[in-house]
Amino acid sequence: MKTLYGLVAAIGLLVPMAAQAEEIGCVSTVFKLFGPDHRICIEAFDDPDVPGVTCHLSRAKTGGIKGMVGLAEDTSDAAIACRQVGPIRLPGDLEDGVSVFEERRSVLFKKLQVVRFYDRARNVLVYLVYSDKVIEGSPKNSVSTVPILPDRVFEGR
């Protein structure tokens, strides 16, 4: 049994860790008589590889009976805003196109992703949110940028 736990732990180390989101708040958009209402929710997550950057996502959540039991497929609508919230320290091995956040949008095949790119010529981090499916994705997307200003002084809260 110890070997199985060791194997699971080793595989876990090989899989890149995406950030976990914290729900900030939601608003109802459609009243549903049975089950929760359709909502737009705002969530926040910190870039797991770049300290000092936080992103806020807004996304639609399907309510009703299907939403209540987890069988609804949420829409591909999402928006993102990323900001510097502390001193930014770029790791030397920063890769482009790395998924920094993932969340399931349906039971099996659809997920929301945030990927990060580094625009070296402009010294800017670029975050792209989009939704994809195994067979067919959606062109709906949103982008946010965080300039890395070396002379910017961050004032604590």
Give helix % range. Answer: 10-25%
Shape: elongated
Number of domains: 1
> Spatial order of the strands in the main sheet?
1-2-3-4
- Determine Rg (CA atoms, Å): 18 Å
Report on this structure.
This protein has 157 residues and is mainly beta. It has one domain. Helices cover 12% and strands 43% of the residues. The protein contains two helices and eight strands, in the order H-E-E-E-H-E-E-E-E-E. The strands form two sheets. The chain has a four-stranded antiparallel beta sheet, with no helix packed on it. It has a four-stranded antiparallel beta sheet with strand order 5-6-7-8, with no helix packed on it. Strand 2 and strand 3 form a beta hairpin. The longest helix is centred in the N-terminal third of the chain and has 13 residues.
Architecture blueprint of SSEs:
Elements: H1 2-14, E1 22-30, E2 38-46, E3 53-61, H2 64-69, E4 78-84, E5 98-104, E6 110-119, E7 124-133, E8 141-147
Antiparallel strand pairs: 1-2, 2-3, 3-4, 5-6, 6-7, 7-8
